[in-house]
Amino acid sequence: MTPTSKTSDLLLRQTRIHFPRLEEAKVKITPIEKGGSDRKFYRVRCSPEQTIILVKYNLEREENRHYVEIAEFLATHKIRAPKIYFHDPAEGLIWIEDLGKTDLWSHREESWLVRRAFYESALGEIVKLHCLPETATRTIRKNLPVEFDAALYRWEQSYFFENCLGRFFGLDARELSELAALESLGRIANELAERPRVLVHRDFQSQNIIIRNGQAHLIDFQGMRPGLAEYDLASLLFDPYVTFAPAECEELLAEYESKRAAANHPVASDFRATFRLCGIQRLMQALGAYGFLGLVKGNKTFLEHIPAAIESLRGLAGEIPELERLSAALGRLP
Question: pTM value?
């Protein structure tokens, strides 16, 4: 018996313990390959018409232990996400609603008319999260990962220099050190950290948004924390997995602004400028993750997305005079 089949048998036994009405002969379990998470996902087929998702998470990672609490919090505030059926915290197992296999990324080749409706639905859900009053989020904030502060922004920048420019592109240590020490990057981190925070998804991109019955549902939200709404928007609109025309990006930004206004939480006057800075941060984080997951963890598929993300980062950095040296370095990359 292979390790994989042993794992499946164990998980099936656990499933039947907690769902005794399932007929043993009909239950099948198959792994789901998903992203760079340390969590393992399985689709449990109970019948031809009924499936559930089983999540096996790492007990050592603090954020994984709060997944259920966050899911229930989202449900309380009518933000669409998978329902929780059962949680076994001792084993690190969660049985959740199966929303299907169709994420926002799956629609990337469709017409803008079709895609726009799905993106608007996603924006509607994230606006609900961004507009929650502080009184509604006070309790859950105590158990969330570290909030976005200057130290976290600086960590994202270092992650990028180490794992993308260093590990993947092979820039020498001296140039890496000089680029990472640019005063303008420190100012960006401090400037973003001074802005008021709301709850953010943290990884609000096309593969973490499931489309079911035409409506967007959020998944992989265990990294939720206080941060800037513009960071979530940057995650969605500078998503290296999909491509937007400038006009399409503008339409979605305007749609977000409209939804915020309708919720009586209009965006700040410097919303677009903050959005661009958050775009730089998010792309640095993503590029650092691609290099780390691709070269350290051995998941080479992530390396395929580096060129698109570098191109977006180069464009954003080129709009800020203080980042001219970084933009020039990015322009010399192969």
Answer: 0.93
